[in-house]
């Protein structure tokens, strides 16, 4: 390693000063961007929003990464973890020209600098944090904790990519980041790139000191080495010395990464490497005001946001701001037209090597269509509805195994989950790939290897972060989880949905593969694990989000799950939530019918109803030319089974009743088209559910969601929804539905109660249904199993 000479270090300081000047300007200035005249109050923004404290550290790292990229011809991506450090990558991408290429109106001259300044945290402008609008970004800086997981996801299957990840010491206090230190145990030095964590210890959060900045350095060193890193330390508050130390540390780290790659790829070394990292300790608000109003600022929590709070109304603050800006010597940094001088531009990367222009940060540029198998290769035979059964997710595992096999060479598909791939019946994927694992492998272990593409770790946050980073850099994947614990990553899902919503509105952002959740081991079949594992509410949360991005599917059987999986794996720029069971489930539809049903999203199952032969009244005609007396709606595999069992009971005991069965796969179909792109018009909705007939709807989750989605429909007063009521336990499968009033007997009772005239003439049947529920209660507590008539039921049974 040859240390940079003084000329190189001086060039680094020049670029750092330029980026710092542009960062302060973004926070404060509305006009007079180059200080060509004395600063006046009207040059200051009326509302000051932004965060200075972390920004000079990000600018420092950016300048040094630029130098290394040029000298080593690195393919590099940067993840900027610390909070609202948005001014830094905006400033640096403006300096290297990638910002102007992305936004041509923000030119590299005085006028463009003025636009860059004004738009920051300004109505109609850009956020104060790193966001989709920021060139070169894959990480939203608005919520802390996910940067390192995103970085590792980006590095997976990108063997020549360096991902530098700056981690704020406040961010390092979060649970997701703490788990992410262990991601190095899953990074394969042969097939994956490298992540260089840069822990920036500037000492403070918004109002408090940070933990890792205050522990003794030997303790910090033990911690970082304990999680498998080989740390390099840079400490200082004098710019020239910091530049010298950081340049040396970065070169050392990159040399070590190159050595790891060489040993693994050329010499066959498979021992887990100790990857380097950098600990950068510089003052918060480095190069900003040392004190304001007699109070210390630089190096304290007061530098976190706006060090000078009122330069527009306080002359002393205005004078201090001008002094601060001029301390960077802008006359040396920008020419007469306001563009960067040759000294600033010297040594900057060009083309796609610029951090603001690397195509990995706009993953749609690199995305290839996923080679999916023909569904005929995976579908199950269905001679007639309800006579056979399969484990839906096990069959899906066969499809995913084919995807893994077909992407074995290109390596652009991964399956992630928290230690549940086999539990969720997806174990057939191990025919094509193993689980990635870089630590010790014992003879008793199964399906572990260095190069596997299934990623399991008991941190849902880490799984989610990996997959987000993987998708945003142009690859495909799926996240499988127990339904109840998807809530753990609810906040991350929110952030990703917001990212996609914003990206869709940026013409330069290319569509990426959708984030696909498979939620299984669901509420109705967690009877063995009990109440803690029973929660279907993730769907409610997702459907509150941007309708152009979110999709929720509840396939009722195996072939519909395959059709839905095929669709979501082909889709772009969505968050798809698929809820499907892993336990044996009746097969209702053959592949052709399943495809048609999923394409429609909701439909009448004519074979299940009796409206073609039963009675009925005036109104819209059903398949038999009559309006049904009652509609039985369902969404979800267990609710579908209970509705069909109820329909079977009605067919046998009330054959004159015209019953319509409607199954919903795409839950957003219940919404209005103005509320969701998949929403049905009133005409289409009422063609399924009628305008005025009773609708008994059995839903997989919380019943009020269905009411919320349909409240505006004409027949909403006739809608009665059954679903999960927070009644759970360790019990039998059928007892779960009985406890929540979703069982077939209760549904028949609902029909009798709500169809005019039935409450009298079907009173005896209603009593029999109530007695069946009572018999169930006694049977299940005595025998520990479901009633034989329930356990042995199938469609059409006599």
Question: How would you describe this structure to a colleague?
Answer:
- The chain has 798 residues and is an alpha/beta fold.
- The chain has 3 domains: 6-356, 3-Layer(aba) Sandwich (Rossmann fold); 372-585, Rossmann fold (3-Layer(aba) Sandwich); 602-613 and 626-792, Rossmann fold (3-Layer(aba) Sandwich), CATH 3.40.50.
- The strands form 6 sheets. A 6-stranded parallel beta sheet has the order 12-9-13-14-16-15, with helices on both faces. Strands 1-2-3-5-4 form a 5-stranded parallel beta sheet, sandwiched between helices.
- α1 packs across α2 (55-72) and α2 (55-72) crosses α10 (239-266).
- The longest helix has 28 residues, at 239-266.
- The relative contact order is 0.08.
- Mean pLDDT is 95; it is low at 614-621.
How does the major sheet shape up? Answer: 6 strands, parallel
Q: Which structural class is indicated by helix and strand composition?
A: alpha/beta
Task: State the total count of DSSP E strands.
Answer: 22
CATH superfamily of the largest domain: Thiamin diphosphate (ThDP)-binding fold, Pyr/PP domains
Q: How many whole angstroms does the radius of gyration measure?
A: 30 Å
Global shape: elongated
Helix residue percentage: 25-40%
Family: Belongs to the XFP family.
Keywords: Lyase, Thiamine pyrophosphate
Protein name: Probable phosphoketolase
InterPro entries: Phosphoketolase, THDP-binding, Transketo_C/PFOR_II, Xul5P/Fru6P_PKetolase, Xul5P/Fru6P_PKetolase_C, Xul5P/Fru6P_PKetolase_CS, Xul5P/Fru6P_PKetolase_N, Xul5P/Fru6P_PKetolase_ThDP_BS
């Amino acid at each position: 390693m040859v240390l940079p000479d003084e000329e190189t270090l001086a060039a680094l300081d020049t670029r750092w000063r330029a980026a710092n000047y542009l960062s302060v300007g973004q926070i404060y200035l509305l006009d007079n961007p180059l200080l060509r005249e004395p600063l006046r109050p009207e040059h200051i923004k009326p509302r000051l929003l932004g965060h200075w404290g972390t920004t000079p550290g990000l600018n420092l790292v950016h300048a040094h990464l630029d130098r290394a990229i040029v000298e080593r011809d690195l393919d590099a991506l940067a993840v900027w973890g610390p909070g609202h450090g948005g001014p830094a990558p905006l400033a640096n991408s403006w300096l290297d020209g990638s910002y102007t290429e992305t936004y041509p109106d923000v030119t590299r001259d005085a006028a463009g600098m003025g636009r860059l300044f004004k738009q920051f945290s300004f109505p109609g402008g850009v956020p104060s944090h790193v966001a989709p609008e920021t060139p070169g970004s894959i990480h939203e800086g608005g919520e802390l904790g996910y940067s390192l997981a995103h970085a590792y996801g980006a590095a997976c299957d990108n063997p020549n990519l360096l991902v530098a990840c700056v981690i704020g010491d406040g961010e390092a206090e979060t649970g997701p980041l703490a788990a992410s230190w262990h991601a190095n145990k899953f990074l394969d030095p042969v097939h994956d790139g490298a992540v260089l964590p840069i822990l920036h210890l500037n000492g403070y959060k918004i109002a408090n000191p940070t933990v890792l900045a205050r522990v003794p350095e030997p303790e910090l060193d033990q911690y970082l080495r304990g999680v498998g890193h080989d740390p390099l330390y840079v400490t200082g508050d004098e710019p020239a010395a910091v530049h010298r130390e950081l340049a040396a540390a970065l070169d050392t780290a990159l040399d070590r990464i190159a050595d790891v790659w060489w040993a693994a790829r050329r010499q066959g070394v498979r021992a887990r490497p100790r990857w380097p990292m950098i600990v950068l300790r510089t003052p918060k608000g480095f190069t900003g005001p040392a004190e304001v109003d007699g109070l210390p600022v630089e190096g304290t929590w007061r530098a976190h946001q706006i060090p000078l709070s009122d330069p527009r109304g306080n002359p002393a603050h205005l004078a201090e701001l001008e002094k601060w800006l001029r301390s960077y010597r802008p006359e040396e940094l920008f020419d007469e037209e306001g563009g960067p001088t040759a000294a600033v531009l010297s040594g900057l990367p060009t083309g796609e090597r610029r951090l603001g222009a690397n195509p990995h940060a706009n993953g749609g540029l690199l995305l290839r269509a996923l080679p999916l198998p023909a569904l005929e290769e995976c579908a199950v035979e269905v001679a007639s509805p309800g006579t056979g059964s399969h484990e839906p997710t096990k069959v899906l595992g066969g499809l995913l195994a084919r995807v893994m096999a077909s992407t074995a060479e290109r390596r652009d598909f991964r399956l992630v989950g928290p230690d549940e791939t086999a539990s969720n019946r997806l174990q057939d994927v191990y025919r094509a790939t193993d689980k990635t694992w870089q630590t010790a492998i014992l003879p008793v272990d199964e399906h572990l290897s260095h190069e596997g593409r299934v990623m399991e770790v008991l941190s849902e946050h880490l799984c989610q972060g990996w997959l987000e980073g993987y998708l945003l850099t142009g690859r495909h994947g799926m996240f499988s989880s127990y339904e109840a614990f998807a809530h753990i990553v609810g906040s991350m899902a929110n952030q990703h949905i917001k990212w996609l919503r914003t990206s869709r509105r940026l013409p330069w952002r290319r569509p990426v593969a959708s984030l696909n959740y498979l939620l299984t081991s669901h509420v109705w079949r967690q009877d063995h694990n009990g109440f803690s594992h029973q929660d279907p509410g993730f769907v409610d949360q997702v459907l509150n989000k941007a309708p152009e991005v979110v999709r929720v599917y509840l396939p009722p059987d195996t072939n519909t799950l395959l059709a839905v999986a095929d669709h979501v794996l082909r889709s772009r720029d969505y968050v798809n939530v698929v809820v499907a069971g892993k336990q044996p489930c009746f097969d209702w539809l053959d592949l052709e019918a399943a495809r048609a049903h999923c394409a429609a999203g909701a439909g009448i199952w004519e074979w299940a109803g009796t409206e073609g032969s039963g009675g009925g009244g005036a109104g819209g005609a059903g398949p038999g030319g009559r309006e049904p007396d009652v509609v039985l709606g369902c969404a979800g595999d267990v609710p579908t089974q209970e509705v069909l069992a109820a329909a079977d009971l009605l067919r046998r005991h009330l054959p004159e009743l015209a019953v319509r069965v409607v199954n919903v796969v795409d839950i957003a179909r219940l919404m209005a088209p103005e509320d969701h792109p998949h929403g049905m018009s009133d005409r289409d909705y009422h063609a399924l559910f009628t305008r005025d007939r009773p609708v008994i709807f059995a839903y997989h989750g919380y019943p009020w969601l269905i009411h919320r989605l349909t409240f505006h429909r004409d027949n909403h007063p006739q809608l009665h929804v059954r679903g999960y009521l927070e009644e759970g336990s360790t019990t039998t499968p059928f007892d779960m539905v009985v406890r929540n009033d979703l069982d077939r007997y209760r549904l028949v009772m609902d029909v009798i109660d709500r169809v005019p005239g039935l409450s009298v003439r079907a009173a005896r049947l209603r009593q029999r249904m109530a007695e069946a529920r009572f018999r169930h209660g006694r049977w299940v507590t005595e025998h520990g199993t479901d009633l034989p008539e329930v356990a042995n039921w199938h469609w059409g049974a006599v």
